[in-house]
Amino acid sequence: MGMIRWIMDNQRYNADYLAIPGIQAMQQAGEQSWTNATHLVIADELPTLAGQHLTLRHLTPDAEETPVVLNTDGELVDASTCRQARLFVTQYVTLADGQRVTVKSGLQRLKEAAEKLSLAQYSEQCGVPEAQIIALAETFTSHGRKAAVISHGGMMAGNGFYNAWSVMMLNALIGNLSLSGGVFVGGGKFNGVSDGPRYNMNSFCRKSETVRVKYCS
């Protein structure tokens, strides 16, 4: 999050890439991926609505549940048909039921989350010197889209998912997803189910009943 804070403060994110709101726009731009950075999120703490993506159905009851973005002309439009959307959005929207809610773009929400702490505070939290956080962020964003960061291990905690997710956000910010030199989805995995013989975990010879470790000599 400290690196994200620096990237946001210094505008070292890939704005053109992040402005692509859907598959159609991705194809038109000749890209290999897209993000929901521009998709609008309901920011008010309202029951059943808080944190939801704003959809066309929120605005028109009989419409589809398609995400909404703010296009470059400042209009609320279907994300799937928009070619380029605004990155940082905070504004009021009146829903079909008459409720007036605050909506923010996903990137705006990420920016605000990163701004909750200063670099000095992030440094104190993680034990990494502030100068090193800056150096890492600067180096990471100095190679265009030919840079990548992954996380494996060190995330096994109650907030591990959120930590890993924030690490992956670094890749999205520079637009390296599904590109040579960047990050690809679908690496190695464990095939836990397939045809063929298997160990019977209930009848291992000399199995230990006390520690549940089953073995054969």
UniProtKB/TrEMBL annotation:
- Example of a GO MF term: 4 iron, 4 sulfur cluster binding
Q: Which superkingdom is the protein from?
A: Bacteria
* Gene3D superfamilies to which the protein is assigned, alphabetical: Dimethylsulfoxide Reductase, domain 2
Does Iron show up as a keyword for this record? yes
Q: Which UniProt keywords apply?
A: 4Fe-4S, Iron, Iron-sulfur, Metal-binding, Molybdenum, Oxidoreductase, Signal
Decide whether keyword tRNA-binding is in the record: no
Report the protein name in the record.
Tetrathionate reductase subunit A
Source species: Salmonella enterica I
